[in-house]
Amino acid sequence: MQWLEAFWTKEGKGIPKDAPKRTGLPLFAEIIAREWWELVKLNLLFLLFSLPLVTAPAATFATATICRMMVEDRPVYLLRDFLEALRAHAMRATVWALVAGTAVIIGVGAISAYAAAARTSLFYAAPLALSLVVTLFVTLWAACFVMVSVTEARPFWESLKLSALAALLRPLPLLAALAFVAALWIAHILFYPVSVFMPAVMNFSLGMFAVAFGAQGVVAQVLARSEEENTIQEP
Amino acid sequence: MASISLKKLNKTYGALKVVHDIDLEIADKEFIVLVGPSGCGKSTTLRMIAGLEEISGGELIIGSDLMNDVPSKDRDIAMVFQNYALYPHMTVYRNMAFGLELRKAPRDVIERQVEEAAKILDISHLLNRKPKALSGGQRQRVALGRAMVRNPAVFLLDEPLSNLDAKLRGTMRAEITKLHKRLDATFIYVTHDQVEAMTMADRIVVMKDGHIQQVDTPQNLYDRPVNMFVAGFIGAPQMNLLPAKLTQEDGRFFALVEEHKLPLPQSFDRSRLLAYEGKDVVLGIRPENFHELAPADIDPANSAPFHAVVELAEPMGSEVHLNLIAGGRNMIARVSPRFRSKIGDRVSLVADLTNAQLFDPQTERSILY
């Protein structure tokens, strides 16, 4: 086993302090390369704590908490932080899952109904487009709500307002993140059975990481703005 | 209060005794360096203080408590190892926090301590990285940080700079010295590098074969070595040790080295010299006490011409090290880069004996101290 020692103790290149920090996709790739094993473990944790189903929303929030810490380059104690977040967000996550889930289900129902109707009459193209846009917005809003909630403890209604603002302010990075999530699942379906373990290994955590990465900038922006407004109002 | 007292401390492995009844008093907040060649027992002594080696005999007292049988974790010490000993699967943050986690320190305390230490060591940007991505210098800082966060009374450092390149070693040397001043803790530092010892220590402990040879300030060790080993070990290039005969003429003592008659300073203790009159001694002259011309600030009464053949000239930039042969003996002189000489040249230098040393060739102890 001695030969393994060099593998662990070999010096690296070092990390220059003043090196320009990567942004965008290169940063996304860098964090994944660095944290891939943690993401695998996080995925397993998510699955484990989602097994009772009623805990799935809280597990989603806990996964988002860990992903946000990874994006912010903060130290992560995976199990401890996950469990703490699970407990802290359990109630809010359940309400979120019920509301957002219902809204998205209604939206998807409306889309399919209007799509079917639009085949017979073009009159239904307008409500189809409207339901598409609204469902997409609700999805973005729901994703932003998760990120706002795990970033800062705010009252429910304030988080709802701030997340709506975030979804409207910069939707493109989040849309890209959702496209990445969709791509992960499409890849799983396309490459089945080779990709049979993808969901168990990374789909959930990597998807949430993409969402956290996409939402990080705008969430920080709206929270900072809200903080400023509160400070101005206080005196 | 973290004064440390070693009383007749010894270590044996079976029949082999590697540390021989050493006595040493280390003051609170002192920076003490154990120096010596490989196998002299310095690391073993440090490991006994750390609690990583069982003490075979004698007493180890930290503060006012006998620590011989106290487990390492309860000694209020932190150790930095030569190979850093970082946990490869943990991030820098977790490596640094690990000791505090074991002590069940609250999370906010751990965060504060780690962030403070990281800031001091300028490694805040590395906290979420794994050791495999770090260079040697960065790893060493992390190892120091891990020791710092525990806020121990005593820091033990076992050749912490040996794996670094020369440039980084110089930087880290200065950093550790600054750290000592900032932390106000007792530091015990083991090295075989006498430059590290000279530049960092409040006092140096020179060891050889498990025995303490001399304990003193760096300057005193350099100026007043108690034996030939210390004289040869401290100083680079090392002191020239030349066989000589001690004679007296007109009330003045001279050291005869081959054809050279070198006047010894009047300040030397006559009573000690008288005991060696007409006998063989070993004359010690530092390489910098040979000059190409007699400088104005040396006493002509304490200097004499010295002739030797150049065997090798090593230009160092600010000076030249001349490897010389005089009367079949090798010696080294440090001269100005302006001094021109070729291999095989017979050169005339001036030997300044103001700081010369005299040793007994049998006991190897200093005649002067």
Report on this structure.
- The complex is a heterodimer of chains A (235) and B (369).
- Chain A is an all-alpha fold.
- The mean pLDDT of chain A is 91.
- Helices cover 81% and strands 0% of the residues of chain A.
- Chain A has one domain (31-48, 55-233).
- Chain A is built from eight helices and no strands.
- In chain A, α2 crosses α8 and α7 (171-190) runs antiparallel to α8 (198-233).
- Chain A has helices at residues 2-9, 24-50, 56-71, 78-120, 125-151, 156-169, 171-190, 198-233.
- Chain A starts with a helix and ends with a helix.
- Chain B has 369 residues and is an alpha+beta fold.
- Chain B has two domains: 4-233, 3-Layer(aba) Sandwich (Rossmann fold), CATH 3.40.50.300; 240-288 and 303-359, Nucleic acid-binding proteins (OB fold (Dihydrolipoamide Acetyltransferase, E2P), Beta Barrel).
- Chain B has nine helices and 20 strands.
- Chain B has a six-stranded mixed β-sheet with strand order 6-7-8-3-9-10, with helices on both faces. Chain B has a five-stranded antiparallel β-sheet with strand order 13-12-11-14-20.
- Chain B is elongated, with a radius of gyration of 24 Å.
- The relative contact order of chain B is 0.12.
- At the A-B interface, loops of A face α2 and α4 of B.
Keywords summarizing the entry:
heterodimer; A: 235 residues; mainly alpha; 8 helices; B: 369 residues; alpha+beta; Rossmann fold; OB fold (Dihydrolipoamide Acetyltransferase, E2P); 6-stranded mixed beta sheet; 5-stranded antiparallel beta sheet; 9 helices; 25% helix; 34% strand; elongated
